[in-house]
Amino acid sequence: MNPFWTHIVIKTTLKHKSNNPDKDKSYSKFELAKGMWELKLIVIRNIKDFILITLGIFSAAFGFKGFLLTNHFIDGGATGISLLISALTKVPLYVLLILINIPFIILGYKILGKAFAIKTALAICGLALVVATVTFPDVTKDNLLVALFGGFFLGAGIGLSVRGGAVIDGTEVLAIFLSRKLGTTIGDIIILINVIIFSAAAYFLSVEIALYSMVTYLSASKTLDFIIEGIEEYMGVTIISSHNEEIREMIVSTIGRGVTVYNGKRGFGKSGESKNIDIVYTVVTRLELNRLNSEIEKIDPNAFVVMSSIKDTKGGMIKKRPLKH
């Protein structure tokens, strides 16, 4: 390995993992190679995060300046509070985006860690900078289009930033904190916050603007879910059957997906006694679910099948093309 890269690897990944980072020690070729591999993964991940957050910043800024600001529409969360105060006080939006989110950044540091807080702070400052300096065209004056597409670009921006490991709207950080303190769900906290925001918009601006702002929020939240959860919806399928080996072979050869087989025990059989059995688990897309059920029906009509929704997956065969036969 090049001496320069050897020095970098030792000072970053290997020193970071060492029990005594201040003490010099010699490393084997295997340790250096493994450290180099980990360093590459870190660099690639950070580049990917930077690209996603940058795209998110410009998408959200376009939603603000191309749609929402000229019509005084707002969104939910911290961005909605910033838009509302900007409409009432004429304080520039880019200033409010930073000021409103400072408490959330501090809270995020305490709850989610230093790396998250730094990324979030940089993302919010980047958004404020783009809103302050970049000119976007005023796309349309139609209220419905403004609400729908303003929410779309804003939600896409927030979603891309989340994919990059940061947030440009700190409401969810507050929701996580309050849910832990109060014992409620994150969704309940977010709904309560947004009810307060939209009620204030109806009082200070107008009922019509508040209603259109709700459309903006719905559009943004649906787009956010789409960006975070991905295009395809995955289903985890657990199959309990006495014909488990045939079902396993069918999933691999016919459906073209990977499987996991683990040992289990029937809680109650026909004879009233427990019985050991192999349980088959696989993950397919929702589009493949109907075909999988049909194939299982052919093998064992009495098979017990449990299906559950999965937000996303990593590794394995699920994101590869199915095997062709």
Largest sheet: 4 strands, antiparallel
Sheet with most strands: strand arrangement: 2-3-1-4
Total helix count? 11
For the secondary structure, the number of strands is 4
Percent in strands: 5-15%
Low-confidence parts? none
Derived from helix and strand composition plus strand pairing, the structural class reads: alpha+beta
Number of structural domains: 2
| Shape call | globular
How large is the radius of gyration?
26 Å
Q: Which terms would index this structure?
A:
alpha+beta; single chain; Alpha-Beta Plaits; 325 residues; four-stranded antiparallel β-sheet; globular
Structure, explained:
The protein has 325 residues and is an alpha+beta fold. The chain has two domains: 46-229, no CATH class; 234-310, Alpha-Beta Plaits, CATH 3.30.70. The protein has helices spanning 3-17, 29-71, 77-89, 93-112, 114-133, 143-163, 171-182, 186-204, 207-229, 244-255, 286-299, and strands spanning 234-240, 259-266, 275-285, 304-310. It has a four-stranded antiparallel beta sheet. A hairpin with an 8-residue loop joins β2 and β3. α2 (29-71) crosses α5 (114-133), α8 (186-204) runs antiparallel to α9 and α10 (244-255) crosses α11 (286-299).
